[in-house]
Amino acid sequence: xxxxxxFDPTRIWFFGLLVMLCGAVLAYIFAARxxxxxxxxxxxxxxxxxxxxxxxxxxxxSCLYIPGVQDMNDIQTIASxxxxxxxxxxxxxxxxxxxxxxxxxxxxxxxxxxxxxxxLAAGRPEAFSPDQVYYVTDEQFGYVxxxxxLMVRERPAACFYxxxxxxxxxxxxxxxxxxxxxxxxxxxxxxxxxxxxAACDYTLIGEEFFAASAYLSGEPDQLGSLKGQDVGKLxxxxxxxxxxxxxxxxxLTGSVAVRSFVDFLINRVLx
Length: 271
Fold this sequence. Notes:
The protein has helices at residues 12-33, 44-59, 75-94, 105-121, 140-154, 168-178, 193-199, 207-210, 212-217, 220-253, 256-269; strands at residues 63-66, 98-102, 133-135, 158-162, 182-187, 202-205. The chain is an alpha/beta fold. It folds into two domains: 13-39 and 231-269, no CATH class; 44-210, Rossmann fold (3-Layer(aba) Sandwich), CATH 3.40.50. It starts with 11 loop residues before the first helix and ends with a helix.
């Protein structure tokens, strides 16, 4: 007769691995709250934000911020709004204009609130205009055509491409390059990274983009979480190397003991 149980003893090793990963994140969060210094390597693309906005201010031209082409249910769009807050705050401090055309109405609303909060944090709430953030169209290439025309007319001095991009990545980056703008891009789309790297001055690659929130804010919880995830990656990486080495040795030597260890990893730890 089948019986229900609250705990599967065959998954104990997997549970232990999960506890280890989560424990590393929590441990570093608590350590950061107690004042532990957590170093994050310098990310050139984020360091260049102030310089890019400053350049636009000196030239008397605007900044253009593209928050990707996906909706708010995409994690890259959420990460993009974090960078937008920094760009908008810097623009408010430097008295530079930043323009944010969007492809989704919900992104427009979230971006508008983000920019308004950034201007308030900079002490210049009166400088904010809702017209800085506006909706264009959901149509991918209709949006691209509008942004291209905007670049030709306004000739922005700084262009930021942060979020999820597809075929439009090279079109936008090449157009920005043709008008002489300094360009900073960030995305987690592997297929679009080569285009941004080739056409932009700075590119946030993959996890650099997602780490922007912790890097820019310096909040202990976010820094601790970032450090804990790095430790988790080291643990997983060590496990992968151990498994590959054991499988190689078992295949070359035919060792029964090593083969048993490999079977243990596959059948107990990973399943």
